[in-house]
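Example: Chlorophyll synthesis pathway protein BchC.
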Amino acid sequence: MDAIAVVLGRPRELSLQQLQLADAPDWLTVDIEWSAISTGTERLLYEGRMPSFPGLGYPLVPGYEAVGRIAHAAPHSGFRKGERVFVPGAARCFGEVRSLFGAAASRLNVPPQRVVAIDESIGERGVLLALAATAYHALTIGGDGQAECVVGHGVLGRLLARLIIAMGGDPPVVWESNPERAAGATGYRVIDPATDTRRDYRLIFDASGDAGLLDSLIARLAPRGEIILAGFYSAPLTFSYPPAFMREAAIRVAAEWKHEDLLAVRNLIDTGRLSLDGLITHHADALSAESAYRTAFDDPSCLKMVLDWRAAP
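Written out as structure tokens, the predicted fold is:
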């Protein structure tokens, strides 16, 4: 079988290519309906700024946020043909074209343990499960999950705020310095950090990905307060030691979600406690991927760009 896929031949060289799918009889074949563009990791891959990871290199198929229908399910896989699933990348089915991420394609072969069945009603919003699971994982690894402050009002920051409320916490304050990103809050306040006078936050979640913010965040902590780094950072992180020393500050890194995090957020969505509404702002036909990627990276009004693969050959 063949698939049409987004291929980064090298930094800033993006194209659509027809690729041969490697045979994997014990895996699932999924016809992708929608995939999303990450303005974090995919932008780093596009610009050639992604830190080195095992298996990373060019050419590669990017993407880790996809929804599709199962076209073939191996016996005893636990899935059935026609079922709608979320696919978090790592397909590894394109031969010499690397697919450490690998979800931006019209068809994928993936191991059953990598996918999660989703309700029909979720539709294209299912691409957001990866970021929802990232936020959920960050909230469950440190402190009591009752963050008082979230930095950044992109999709990850919005999901962190929504999950804090969904999990029984008080609404956090969300910092956003870009006025174009300040709108869209649901049950919490968004403020410019320059107007915030607090210096006693017990727990701050940084969803900005800005490697230069640590000193300013440490200055806002209460004694023995904690910062959880929930974004992805391409530059080295540094901070001035004396202010952190005076506060006995803790800094924790939230790594990639686990499969159980995907299941947990799916349950929160299915029970109506977590909404994914209002987070997808832009759509494009997958065959226009090159211009869609430019919009996703360069247009500040674009929270999440979704590629529609349903018309792909």
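The longest helix spans residues 129-141.
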